[in-house]
Amino acid sequence: MATNSTSETRTCDTTGLPVCLTAQLFIKLSAVCAVVFLLLGGVAAILLALTRWQTIHLLPVDWFYRILTFHGLNMLIFWILFFEVAVLYFACTVPLKAKLFSRKVAWVGFIMMLVGAVMVDYIILKGKADVLMTSYLPLLAHPAFYLGIILVAVGTLIGVFNFFATLYVAKRDRTYEGSVPLVTFGATAAAIIAVVTLLHGAIVMIPTFTFAMGWTPEPDPMWYRTIWWGLGHQSQQVNVCAMVAIWYLVGYLATGAKPINETVCRGAFVLYILFINLASAHHLLVDPAVGATWKIWNTSYAMYLAVLASMIHGFTVPASVEMAMRYKGYTKGLFGWVTKLPWRNPAFSAAVLSVVIFGFIGGITGVTLGTQQINIIAHNTLRITGHFHATVVGGTSLAFMGLTYYVIPLIFQRDFIGKGWARIQPWLFGGGILMVSLGMSFAGSLGVPRRDYDIEPAGVYGASSHLFLGIMGVGAIIAVLALLIFVLLCVGTLLFGKKNAGRPIYDWGTAVALPGADESKVDAHWGMKGTIALTAVFLMCFAVYYFANWKALADVWPVQ
Amino acid sequence: MSLTVPEKGWYKAPEGAEKLWIGLALVWCMVMSVMMPYWHFRGKQNSRGEAYSVEPAAFMERTTTFVESGTVGDWNGIPIVEPPPGGEAYLAARMWSWYPALKLRKGETYRLHLSALDLNHGFSLQPLNMNFQVLPGYDHVLTITPTSTGEFTIVCNEFCGIGHDKMIGKIFVE
């Protein structure tokens, strides 16, 4: 089939969907920038891990904090935001058969983001902003640092505006009938949370910038912390939404899974929008001047309704995959379907690892650490970093990497080189990050602080904390190697990959139906037996970890 | 399918295992929600966030008065101060020291005032692993009761510049 391209759209040879060429251009630009920032953040990661691995202790002290600032911003902000803009532009055009609202707006947003990000990186490496990602006042960086962050935030907001405008135009022009697809719905939830988040960023960064310029008085340090975390934690909830949307998407692409109940999946996204904005309290639980009532209410995200949303997705995603497999005839026992999953598909294995690491490690530790009182034994220790490396790296970044195994063939229209490497890459990365996360978590449980160059002067951290820091170091080496493999595969494919225009893309592997498969033999309501067993195990792990932490808390000195 | 428009009439209540899981998850969320108010009234470790506005200079003045009134020893050139049981203790954080060192008695309760003179600092008591945030401009009051004896180290766990990792303080409990 020949490429049916007009000046504005082309027809995808694999899915038959029209791809808006403007959207495609900005998906490409954003994705390439995202991967470059990922690489920069990855180089920083290995330097940091080999410094905190006390036996090696690589960097000098000033460069440690400088690279730590660099790592945080490149990974948590630039890599993720650029990738999310790509996801948003995809989700509002391709599934809706719509054209991107405005090319000009997209250029403005993209250039602002890029200029801002480059500015921030330059200022950090010049040594003018050794303030870490949080840049808590009265710690002060060069004004260009704040200006860069403001540019990135406003640029992203402009991209989000383009997304909403596209949704509006698509609805008005009836490019689709009825409700938007689930992936677009999830992306919309992410975009709504992003707006709230970025507004917090503007509220906190603009007065900080004007203060750094000497135009206005110093903002209150506690005020700064409160509003900053309205940006800091929520920006990670944007990632959660985008990641979950990708889980559904990859589940569908690799196994044909469809949501068992659209209402439940969409309802869970709505819970994120309504309740996740309270999450900023997590970082202020042992701060002065915020009261216990405020802490308890916000910490629980109002009755943990946002946590409920994640637990719902944690069930519906694997359940939909299991049902798809059972419909295909893999009905043996509890887990007979698991071995027949398309494990040779790197997008699929990345998504599965993302669900498992995010759920079991990231989710359970996050809710526990974020509990009002338990935070006393966790605040600013490596347990916090252990938690968010499981959520943001093992969860979000791995899901984004997985999706890239489809983005490059479908959007860049090139088939991957080094397919064998691609197959092991998610396992290496997931395994490495698991070691990083667990190493950090256990070291943190022994009191090892985060953001600390050297724990020896304190003289209180024994052999076991050094062992866990070593495990973190080895894990980091593995994970960064896997990250390099990923970047090399992506760049190599863009340069040397075979063009696939005019023919379907290389099949990474999808689950095939057995002959004689009979959908009607599967119980639609209780068929997901394996998922039921897995989520039961999850709930037990959760309860054990949660109450073990209350016990650990009860063992320390009474404090009010 | 997650990538295509759902069929008409997709709105329906959860059924079967999905309904069961949502119910279970909701019950678990409620258990967690109740735990925090429960601990607030029945538990002994709560971070209430009691704090008062204070200028760094004023806090340093109070700390100096506290040191003059109760110095009982010396640790590495830093005075060790013993507050009266039930009394007030002051601890000033600045780049890169905790001032002064404290001597407390097991089983007695103290009101520990924490404040920073310059930047954010982190009060991390090791090897107990109790952690609190210390901010300039805020007198953060912790009502603490040591229940174990020995030598405890205060580690700074909020980044405060190059000497951050060497910012070490002491609490001795007898």
List keywords for this structure.
heterodimer, A: 560 residues, mainly alpha, 15 helices, globular, disordered N terminus, B: 174 residues, alpha+beta, Immunoglobulin-like, 2 domains, five-stranded mixed β-sheet, 2 helices, 12 strands, 24% helix
Would you mind describing this structure in some detail?
The complex is a heterodimer of chains A (560) and B (174). By secondary structure, chain A is mainly α. Chain A has a domain at 9-177. Chain A is 68% helix and 1% strand. In chain A, helix 3 (103-125) runs antiparallel to helix 4. The N and C termini of chain A lie far apart (72 Å). By secondary structure, chain B is of the alpha+beta class. Chain B folds into two domains: 13-46; 50-173, Immunoglobulin-like. Chain B is built from two helices and twelve strands. Chain B has helices at 16-42, 56-70; strands at 51-53, 71-75, 78-81, 88-94, 97-99, 101-104, 110-116, 121-126, 130-134, 138-144, 150-156, 168-173. In chain B, the strands form two sheets. A seven-stranded mixed beta sheet of chain B has the order 2-3-6-12-11-8-9. Chain B has a five-stranded mixed beta sheet with strand order 1-10-7-4-5, with helices on one face. In chain B, strand 2 (71-75) and strand 3 form a beta hairpin. The model of chain B has no long low-confidence stretch (mean pLDDT 94). Chains A and B meet through helix 2, helix 6, helix 7, helix 8 and helix 9 of A and helix 1, strand 8, strand 9, strand 10 and strand 11 of B. Chain A: Residues 32-515 form the Cytochrome oxidase subunit I profile domain. Chain A: Keywords: Electron transport, Membrane, Respiratory chain, Transmembrane, Transmembrane helix, Transport. Chain A: GO terms for molecular function: cytochrome-c oxidase activity; heme binding. Chain A: The chain crosses the membrane at residues 25-50, 70-93, 105-125, 145-170, 182-215, 235-255, 267-286, 301-325, 346-368, 388-412, 424-447, 467-496, 530-548. Chain A: This is Cbb3-type cytochrome c oxidase subunit I.
